Amino acid sequence: MPVKIRLQRHGRKGYAYYHIVIADSRAPRDGKFIERIGSYNPNTDPATVTLKFDRALYWMQVGAQPTDTTRNILSAEGVLMKKHLLEGVKKGAFDEAEAEKRFAAWQTSKESRVNKTKEQIAADKAAAAKARLAAEVEVNKAKAAELAKKLAEAKAAEAEAQVEAAAETAEVEAPVEEKEAPAAE
C-alpha cells in the first residue's frame, strides 16, 4: 500500500486551512486517512503549523512519501533534518549525542530567524500605525485651522452686521427724536 503524507482541505471558500494526514495514495483528497498528524493554516502571517513531530518522523522513517507542499512544511518544521541526522547515526557517521546537538543548533537558529521575522512584522505594523496617526493629526490640524478661519469670518461678519444694525437703528432713532422734539413744544 503506497502511503502518502498529504494535506486534506478544510474551511470555507476563500479561507482554507489544511489537516496534515497519512493516507493511502489511492484514497480521495478529503476522504479516508490513516492518521492525522497535524494542521496547516496559511491564512495567518506567518503561516501556523501544528505537527506531531514524533509521528511525522516515524512515518517518514517507515517510507511514507510526502507531497511537495507537505515536504516543504516538514522541512521547515525539522522532520526531514532529524530523519537525515538519524540516518547518519545508523550509518555510523556520528553518534546520537552529536545528532541531537546538531538538531538543537539548527532549531535555535530557525527559531531566532522566525522571531526576527515576527518582530520585523510587528515593527512594520507599529510604524504604519504611527504614520497613519501622524497623517490623521495633520488632517485634523488642517480641519481645525479651516474651522477656526470660518468661525473668525462668521464672528467678523456677525460683528459687522451688529455694527451696521446699530448704525441703522441710530440713523432711524435720530430723525425720530428730532421730529418728536418740535412736536413737544
TrEMBL record:
Stretch list, region Disordered: 158-185
Biased segments, Basic and acidic residues type: 176-185
Secretion signal span: none
BP GO annotations: translation
GO MF annotation terms: structural constituent of ribosome
GO cellular component assignments: cytoplasm; small ribosomal subunit
UniProt-listed InterPro entries: Ribosomal_bS16, Ribosomal_bS16_dom_sf
Keywords tagged on the record: Ribonucleoprotein, Ribosomal protein
Composition bias, Low complexity: 159-169
HAMAP family: Ribosomal_bS16
UniProt name for this protein: 30S ribosomal protein S16
Organism this protein belongs to: bioreactor metagenome
